[in-house]
Amino acid sequence: MVSTGKHRPRKRFGQNFLTDLKLREFIVNSAFIVKSDTVLEIGPGRGELTGIIAVRAPVIAVEIDRDLVKLLRSRFETNKNVEIIEGDILSFDFKALPVKKIKVIGNVPYYITTPIIFKLLENKEKVEIAVLTIQKEVAERLGASPGSKDYGVLTIMVGMYAEVEILKIIPAAAFYPAPQVDSAVISVKPREFMRASVKNPASFEKLVKTAFQQRRKNIRNALVRFGAEKEKVKSILNSCGINENSRPEDVSIEEFAKLADALS
């Protein structure tokens, strides 16, 4: 059994501690931290990554588990480069951060991966890069290409606002306790501008979600469900250069943007 000090990992917080030192170093190295940076760490756990980060730059570590907060404050009591905040990252006020830009590192609980990523993108003006350890399956969806089974709403909505790259696959055995699935380290770099301009982002999102509600149906049917006049659907698709028999998973982000504008 791997020692966890006085703390027993809590399932309700999705706690799985990375035990491999080389992988911890890889994760921190992937953020390309320099002395002038400030790092926001999501879910520092027992502080294994925190200690590595703090050697390189100041770190603000947000932890929801009050027992771990006590452990962390004790461990880093004399370290002026570490600030421990007790709280939920989903409620964290990024705008209150005293720096213009931050780098984010986190071993993210599987059950809130998507909300955390969207939280970061909602605050993209503050985020330079995020290096996250997440469920492998979700990483594959984020990095999917049109035409693949993993391509879907998450791919498109995140890809519209950020560049995502899978950096490394981590086997379940590298964690304690071992989760039931493998993980992946990804980098998320918010885009300065949207990947494709759209007149109405809300309409774009609604169209994408409508299309993938029945992903095996063709895009023509999706547009009708979205509210397009049936007799105009073919001409709209032709004007956007999209085959009417294509399925939603075949339509690129740029093509969805064209459709959203044509329908608005």
Spatial separation of the terminal alpha carbons: 58 Å
The name of the CATH architecture of the largest domain is: 3-Layer(aba) Sandwich
CATH topology of the largest domain: the name is Rossmann fold
Fraction in helix: 25-40%
CATH superfamily of the largest domain: Vaccinia Virus protein VP39
Question: Are there runs of 5+ residues with pLDDT below 50, and where?
Answer: 1-5
Number of strands: 9
Characterize the main sheet. Answer: 7 strands, mixed
Rg computed from alpha carbons, rounded to a whole number of angstroms: 21 Å
Write a concise keyword list for the protein shown above:
Rossmann fold; alpha/beta; two-stranded antiparallel sheet; 10 helices; 264 residues; single chain; Helicase, Ruva Protein, domain 3; disordered N terminus
Please explain how this structure is put together.
With about 260 residues, the protein is an alpha/beta fold. Helices cover about 35% and strands about 20% of the residues. It folds into two domains: about 10-190, Vaccinia Virus protein VP39 (Rossmann fold, 3-Layer(aba) Sandwich); about 200-264, rRNA adenine dimethylase, C-terminal domain (Helicase, Ruva Protein, domain 3), CATH 1.10.8. It has helices at about 20-30, 50-55, 65-75, 115-120, 135-140, 155-160, 200-210, 220-225, 230-240, 255-264; strands at about 15-20, 40, 60-65, 80-85, 100-105, 125-135, 160-170, 175, 185-190. The strands form two sheets. It has a seven-stranded mixed β-sheet, with helices on both faces. Strands 1-8 form a two-stranded antiparallel sheet. Strand 5 (about 100-105), helix 4 (about 115-120) and strand 6 form a beta-alpha-beta unit. Helix 1 crosses helix 2, helix 7 crosses helix 8 (about 220-225) and helix 7 (about 200-210) packs across helix 10. It starts with 16 loop residues before the first strand and ends with a helix. The model is unreliable at about 1-5 (pLDDT under 50).
